[in-house]
Amino acid sequence: MENSSSKNILVFSAHAADFVWRAGGAIALYSSRGYRVRILCLSFGERGESQGAWKQPGMTIDRVKEIRRAESTRAASILGAEIRFFDSGDYPLLPSPETIAEIVAEYRVHQPEFVLTHSHLDPYNPDHPTANRVALDARVYAQAAGYPAAGSELGAPPVFLFEPHQPEQCEFKPQVLLDITSVWDRKKAAMESMEAQGHLVDYYTDLGKRRGVQAVRNSGRKGIKQAEAYERVFPQVTGDFS
Ligand SMILES: [Zn+2]
Q1: How many angstroms separate the alpha carbon of residue 237 from the centre of ligand 1?
Q2: Is 209 exposed, middle or buried (0-12, 13-18, 19+ CB in 10 A)?
Q3: 21 CA distance to ligand 1 centroid (A)?
Q4: pLDDT digits (tens, 9 = 90+) for 184-196
């Protein structure tokens, strides 16, 4: 297994579980290769994405946050990642200027090899495009010599957008199919730890199979059983077509 312990990755998650469904395979894959994967969880999804928790009698917003924090922490641990919570609220997600500055510092201190975040559009959930914009804006600020933040100026890490729940409505078109077959068991275990949204486990298992079939069709690699789809934000820079 490749050992790249000095290399970092940043993953932006608008809510407590987004990173599990959409990028759990990528996170497990790179952590298994020795990368340090850091999830920046902008909110707990306490209002909009905690249906299961709100069915319990006597539930409060603080209790929902506690439940979601525990679930996310467990899922991140299963995937081999670190997680930082910002508690910027949901519906709407409103990161403060101080939070933006802290995210710029995350970029500068950790100098990620690449970044994963939400799609540009999502008419079903306005917090997801907000997380996209936070990730992209902070990346630009981190590149600016005059921005006051810890660490050193950022280079140009590529940004990959993970697949939204209803991709056609979000104008999401897969450009990268990542083979996650080798870490599928870990993604499944992480999904099953998100009890407040247990209804999504079958959905994302089936989606991974479909993307896996498409990965085989586009590569000829018959061993691929599970894949995740991503879209690039910036052009790939290369000396070779491949
Ligand atoms: Zn979400």
Answers
A1: 31
A2: middle
A3: 10
A4: 999 999 999 887 6
